[in-house]
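question for whoever is on the cluster today: can someone run the full assembly for these? two chains, 1025 residues total. i dont have access anymore since they changed the login thing
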Amino acid sequence: MAPGVCAEPFGVYVHVPFCATRCGYCDFNTYTAGELGGATGPDAWARAARTEVALAASTVVAGPLQTVFVGGGTPTLLDPALLAGVLGDVRDAFGAATEVTVEANPETVTPALLDALLAMGVTRLSLGMQSAVPHVLAALDRVHTPGRAVEAARLARAHGFGEVSLDLIYGGPGESDEDWRRSVETALGAGPTHVSAYALIVEDGTALGRQVSRGEVAAPDDDVLAGRYELADALLTAAGLPWYEVSNWGSPCRHNLAYWRSHDWWGIGPGAHSHVAGTRWLNVRHPATYAARLADGVSPAQGRELLTAAQREDERVLLGIRLAEGLPAAGLPGLDELVGDGLLERRPDRHGERVVLTPRGRLLADAVVRALLP
Amino acid sequence: MRLSRRGVGGQVTPTVTAQQVLSCRAYRTVRAATPGAAGWDDGRVKPVDDRTDPALIRNFCIIAHIDHGKSTLADRMLEVTGVIEQRNMRAQYLDRMDIERERGITIKAQNVRLPWTSTDDGRDYVLHLIDTPGHVDFTYEVSRSLAACEGALLLVDAAQGIEAQTLANLYLAMENDLTVIPVLNKIDLPAAQPERYAEEIAHLIGCEPGDVHRISAKTGLGVTQLLDTVVREIPAPTGDPDAPARALIFDSVYDSYRGVISYVRVVDGELTTRDRLQMMSTKAVHETLEVGVISPEPVVRKSLGVGEVGYVIPGVKNVREARVGDTITSASHPAETSLGGYRDPRPMVFSGLYPMDGSDYPDLREALDKLQLNDAALVYEPETSVALGFGFRVGFLGLLHLEIVRERLEREFGLTLISTAPNVVYRVVMENGEEVAVTNPSEMPGGKIAAVWEPIVKSMVLAPSEYVGAIMELCQARRGVLLGMDYLSESRVELRYTLPLAEIIFDFFDALKSRTRGYASLDYELAGEQVSDLVRVDILLQGESVDAFSAVVHKDKAYAYGTAMATKLRELIPRQQFEVPIQAAIGARVIARENIRALRKDVLAKCYGGDISRKRKLLEKQKEGKKRMKNIGRVEVPQEAFIAALSTTTD
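^ ran it for u. tokens below:
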């Protein structure tokens, strides 16, 4: 891999591929202990991840490290010392980030864990709450008890975490509009600084996908999902958490903003994606293969894709339009029709004019993108 | 279109696919004769002069339903007459068939000269077996083949009995005063009921059940006796050898090496290469490049005399210059009157053919030009559809003809086509007396119409008697008028109806089949036209008329058509970002309405680092898909929706 120079703010993503159990809707690159067997445990992962950090450091002449995001999987299943080791290496290699997020399963959050996370420089906690309603959680295979996420969020806030995010999913099997309202209101009751709310996506190859294709579970209806989105948007906005991305409200996660602004980041860990200097790549997915590659001194990267100027432009549009800051209007085709249809609105800007999705436009963002792409 | 029918006894006859019929006589192209093979393209073969005494000639055809064993019987006749030796039968014949299949042709026994030494009198006879196409679209071609014969074998499957098609052709043969020899085939089958069907046939043609031959074309049982009967019962041809030449063209095919090859039956005088020939309908004069007989290879001859059946190569490049039914005469001593019966092929069914990919339009034109060389009935002219782009309005003899042409365009020329629902030709008389022939429903004039005439057919349905009620119900729903009903036997009925052709070309076959559990068979012939209360129904998307969906229907059925089409489109057209009203209208009057609700959600909820490449690729794919959309106003309609909406609706 040729050394790249990152002039722009640089981010590091760390993928922790372990979960206690697999949720029915999840298609992430994650494994339970039973699936992996003994050989490729957290220790091997941490060793390999630290080797990859060193590889990244020797490859990229990076600008200041801005953000780190530790996702999974369930990062908090790790012994905190292992995570601290990896994050320490990242800091040593690229400098201290101003935002360090760790995803956490509410069940794993204890005062001791929070102390350990703060000690290793974590500034932001992202909790997978999904729902406040027992039957919806059960349908999603989530193991935590409904009150746990809210408790964990309160605890984290009390412990000194300035930023706490809650993830919610709407449109799960059996969920009613009222269930969803209860979930959003419960989440808001915990005082989060940030909420992500996602429509349930039925992915091929998941247990839920199989249930839907067998007809045992109805796929979520788009009209119902649209209604839930509008409800969430109204409740979150009223609670002082304005939207800044199609599915995100509140004080922005700067790491994720970097994705939508087409900035550069390096993904550490099995199956992690990277975007550096106009190239995207993906690491080998299986933890054992990943560890073996790095142990042999071989790059774990695969599926490398050098983006053309046209592809970069497509990505700039498809990602940027998802943000509340929108895109500069200059050079975008078909704006009059999109504005006329009430999907986009024009916002004056000191550099000219920007276009931003309207509430209806957010729900039809992919159609807007198709109209905006040449 | 499916034409699969079942016969009595419940035995399923195979579905006749257009592909099988591609090789039917009117559509084959003869290209099998390669240079060096004996035949019409080899100048080294010395013409033989062995004109035959008409008294020793017997010209006959076989009338049979598809799969009742016509080809097998023809094969057996080739074998027992020694034209093809038994031991070579398989090798020689199957090889030829491979060539035929590869090149899309059928040479098999469409007209073949067979020597036969009669067991009765020991004399050497010449039998000409003339094949007939087996579908209602080609009734005219059948009538010309029959006109070239003095007799016909009525071949009926002993397990299934006579079918409507066969019956129609039998009537045609009887009208032509042909001697009919009834034959029951497949008597070796366990399901055969020769007694029952011999009775039925005897009743139909007025003979004794004992007169019906019982054979097995497969095993050869009874075939030599049958050939002796042909010699004994079918009259020898009569004609004046000294009169100016007159020969009937009963088939013409285009060969890329030799141009058009016409199959003829000489009635008077002789056809010879010493004389130029003249087509009596056009007076056009052509060289007589070659004459010969098929036995079963082409054999070059000096001349063809009275009663003989063979081929003529007139050196023309298009079958329109040597049309089926025309009379060939001598250019130097032309006959005064033609043999009669000539008719220009008249397209009865029209459909718009459009390339799926607009850039294939020139290829479609070229392909139609090529097909037309060998198909005198095919007519077309360019047309433009708002919905479908550039294409052609193509006229056909009937639905099967349409299906064959479409299939050949797709198979042989690699085109992917959208075709509009087939329609008939309407003759519209305006109040000011002006007349318009409408071949495209969207061009049906509005207002000030005095009368609309539509073509009608006389149809015949044969079915077990328990289905009479169901058939009557269907025919009445299709605006049929009962002409009569006869019992062929205790259990089988023949129903005769006048029906608008437009009602038959839609999905009549399918409806008839499903209502009679496949046991009914159908035949029809054109029977003029009638004034009907017809209206044009337009389909509008968001107020824009979609020309490809306009239809001319009976006033009483306009609402049903409009509702069905609107409902279908609501299911086929994906939701747009705005509400799309679908309306069916007669003129300005809306008769049915459906709504496609506006799409509310079209966004992927999650788009993080790992999702970006996948998302970009998906959007690139969607962008490509957008190019395949047709825009009606602002409504994007996928081509699949057009295809599905234009496919024949079933009630």
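summary bc i know u wont read the tokens: The CA atoms of residues 77 and 108 of chain A lie 7 Å apart. Residues 1-6 of chain A have pLDDT under 50 and may be disordered.
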